[in-house]
Write a structure and sequence with these properties.
Number of helices: 4
Distance between the termini: 118 Å
Number of strands: 0
Order of helices and strands: HHHH
Structural class: mainly alpha
Strand content: under 5%
């Protein structure tokens, strides 16, 4: 039995050496897992802070969007108001243009007959229209409203200045 015992002891020694080397290998693997677990925990903490920052950014963006939306709504409303005002001014200017057109042929006939004669005084209500006909577009832009102009003329001039400036 000596040989048999010796064979079993050698086999057990070999198995013991294999187990020792395998346990060293597993110990290294466990230390790597522990180190990676620490990195994983750090990664999870970083992900949580990033998601919190993203959430605060979304909240800030939502508030900014609401503020811009309100400002845009006010701008749209003022634009609608200006559109109504301009439409009203256009209607008034068309009326004034029709009045000018009705006065223009009468003025041409009168001036055609007076070429040789000295200048005849104009009617006071025609004076603003005749002076407006002689103005160039650049002069109309810089024209200051006078007290003799009607409210519609003053509003038209104000709207033109706002549009240009």
């Amino acid at each position: 039995m000596d040989r048999f015992q010796l064979g079993i002891e050698i086999a057990l020694s070999v198995l013991l050496l294999v187990t020792i080397f395998y346990s060293l290998y597993l110990g290294r693997a466990l230390s790597v897992l522990r180190r990676d677990r620490g990195q994983l925990d750090a990664l999870i903490a970083s992900l949580q802070s990033s998601s919190a920052q993203a959430q605060s950014g979304i909240d800030h963006l939502r508030q900014t969007t609401e503020l811009v939306g309100r400002a845009l709504g006010k701008t749209v409303e003022s634009g609608k108001s200006l559109k109504r005002d301009l439409a009203m001014l256009c209607e008034r200017s068309e009326t004034l243009a029709q009045q000018l057109e009705s006065l223009l042929p009468a003025g041409r006939v009168a001036t055609a007959g007076m070429k040789a004669s000295p200048r005849v005084e104009e009617r006071p209500e025609e004076a603003p229209f005749r002076s407006a006909l002689r103005l160039k577009p650049d002069e109309v832009r810089t024209m200051k409203p006078s007290g003799s102009k009607s409210a519609a003329e003053r509003e038209l001039l104000r709207a033109l200045r706002q549009k240009q400036g």
